[in-house]
């Protein structure tokens, strides 16, 4: 039996938060492993959210979450420009539907300012309807949030993980941590694929973070999976709404919104339901009915449009009002817990914070002299050119002119590229997130068989059907 290499840092969980941490740390003179229970990166909460790049205007001032969402917004906006992660700065309007909500708007504006966001304006009902003409009747006024934006959560996760690997991180998928042995100098993580040893362990396991925490002897928090179901409407609905339409937030979260998506659809959701089952990512009839009732009031015209898909994600809600990021100096262990409903935005700032916490705890964190350029990601955004629209690309490589998925206009060239990328998909599901293939109106009825065949050809995999 060979002794596993001891990494300087092992990060558990290859969602947005863990991938951002691995990327940040491997920009320094450290050996880093990123280990993930599933067979792909970004297959947990990070793949199924509302995909809004938050300004943090409505966070609780003074919290770590407020600080890191604010910082993360700027870091991710900048990173998106360098990597080609699609973002649309649509802006949002928070709509007041009754007098109580209208009266709450000045406090929300003040809160935004306390969170470092100075651009909110209170507007009257006429201005709300001028911006969102298809809004349902009864709006009394609103608060504008001009910098709230939509983004591709899949590309964020993949870009961060790819960057981490390019910088030297060793990515180990299919490695579920189920035990630990804490030694004087190193910790051995027992996983479903053998042991992984690290001098420092960072727990970014999302919904599983409290279970890993317990392996280190803690009982400081419990994760409650808080399900959010969403409905995605057809692209023909996209003309109905150009901005994110937000409700007045409550203590349970941000509420049900209507938003354009980066892929050219319109989204309604999410619900908010506390569960026990950490795997319950199915959608329900009750959730659907609830969203339809909300949608009917928010934007009745939307309900005339076709539904393309429904999905749900699980927020890692915890019994603690803020992010829980704490280093245990003695055990060389750092917890990143409770990154509930803002982790897509805050991930890169969480990574910086983790780096500083580790440095404070004594880890020598010296930047590498040179780093590879950030990866240039394939564009999945509807607002930017895609290969089928680029005659020069098609001329150089005719595979970009051969559309395989007609609903989403995905070409053979993009599928091939994804299969040969730094982190290739291990199943067709992963190909969806890398290309948009099979995500459209027909939900793979037309292209499913061809996509499967292409995937098998490009990855030399046996059919899993
Ligand atoms: C409905 C909904 C809407 C949201 N909307 C937004 C939004 O608009 N904007 C925003 O900024 N945020 C939003 N969020 C929050 C955001 O999606 C999350 O905060 C973020 O994705 C969390 O990333 P993560 O890396 O912590 O978790 P995850 O993506 O879940 O990653 C954790 C990883 O750890 C792995 N793991 C778990 N246990 C183990 C183990 N024992 N061994 C190895 N690996 C393990 C999991 O498989 C998983 O891949 C939303 C969330 C939901 C559910």
Automatic annotation (TrEMBL):
Highest taxon of the lineage: Bacteria
Domain BFD-like [2Fe-2S]-binding, residue spans: 403-456
Residue span(s) of domain FAD dependent oxidoreductase: 8-356
Gene3D superfamilies, per database record: BFD-like [2Fe-2S]-binding domain (1.10.10.1100), D-Amino Acid Oxidase, subunit A, domain 2 (3.30.9.10), FAD/NAD(P)-binding domain (3.50.50.60)
InterPro entries: BFD-like_2Fe2S-bd_dom (IPR007419), BFD-like_2Fe2S-bd_dom_sf (IPR041854), FAD-dep_OxRdtase (IPR006076), FAD/NAD-bd_sf (IPR036188), G3P_Oxidase/Oxidoreductase (IPR052745)
Pfam family, one: DAO
PANTHER family reported in the protein's UniProt record: GLYCEROL 3-PHOSPHATE OXIDASE, GLYCEROL-3-PHOSPHATE DEHYDROGENASE
Protein's recorded name: NAD(P)/FAD-dependent oxidoreductase
């Amino acid at each position: 039996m060979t002794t596993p290499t001891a990494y300087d840092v092992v990060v558990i969980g290859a969602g947005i938060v863990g991938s951002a941490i691995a990327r940040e740390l491997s920009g320094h003179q450290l050996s880093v492993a990123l280990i993930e229970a599933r067979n792909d990166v970004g297959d947990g909460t990070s793949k199924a959210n509302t995909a809004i790049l938050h300004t943090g205007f409505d966070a609780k001032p003074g919290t770590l979450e407020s600080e890191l969402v604010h910082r993360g917004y700027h870091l991710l906006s900048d990173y998106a420009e360098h990597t080609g992660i699609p973002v649309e700065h649509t802006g949002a309007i928070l709509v007041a539907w009754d007098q109580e909500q209208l009266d709450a708007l000045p406090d929300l504006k003040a809160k935004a300012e306390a969170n470092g966001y100075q651009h909110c304006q209170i507007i009257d009902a006429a201005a709300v309807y001028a911006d969102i003409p298809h809004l349902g009747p009864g709006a009394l006024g609103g608060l504008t949030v001009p910098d709230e934006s939509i983004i591709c959560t899949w590309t964020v996760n993949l870009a961060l993980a790819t960057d981490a690997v390019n910088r030297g991180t060793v990515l180990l998928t299919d490695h579920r941590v189920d035990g630990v042995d804490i030694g004087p100098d190193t910790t051995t993580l027992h996983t479903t694929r053998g042991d992984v040893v690290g001098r420092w362990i960072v727990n970014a396991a999302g919904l599983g973070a409290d279970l890993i925490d317990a392996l280190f002897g803690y009982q400081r928090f419990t994760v409650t999976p808080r399900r959010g179901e969403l409905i995605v409407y057809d692209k023909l609905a996209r003309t109905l709404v150009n901005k994110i339409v937000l409700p007045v937030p409550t203590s349970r979260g941000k509420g049900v919104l209507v938003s354009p998506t980066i892929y050219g659809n319109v989204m309604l959701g999410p619900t908010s339901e506390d569960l026990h089952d950490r795997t319950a990512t199915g959608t329900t009839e009750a959730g659907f009915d609830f969203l339809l009732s909300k949608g009917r009031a928010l934007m009745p015209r939307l309900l005339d449009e076709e539904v393309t898909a429904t999905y749900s994600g699980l927020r890692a809600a915890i019994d603690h009002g803020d992010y829980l990021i704490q280093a245990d100096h003695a055990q060389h262990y750092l917890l990143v817990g409770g990154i509930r409903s803002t982790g897509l935005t805050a991930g890169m700032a969480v990574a910086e914070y983790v780096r500083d916490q580790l440095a404070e705890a004594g880890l020598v964190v010296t930047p590498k002299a040179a780093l590879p350029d950030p990866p240039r990601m394939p564009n999945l955004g509807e607002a930017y050119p895609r290969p089928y629209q680029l005659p020069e690309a098609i001329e150089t490589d005719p595979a970009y002119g051969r559309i395989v998925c007609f609903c989403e206009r995905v070409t053979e060239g993009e599928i091939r590229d994804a299969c040969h990328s730094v982190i290739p998909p291990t199943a067709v599901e992963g190909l969806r997130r890398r290309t948009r293939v099979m995500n459209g109106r027909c939900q793979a009825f037309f292209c499913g068989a061809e996509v499967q065949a292409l995937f098998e050809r490009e990855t030399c995999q046996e059919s899993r059907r």
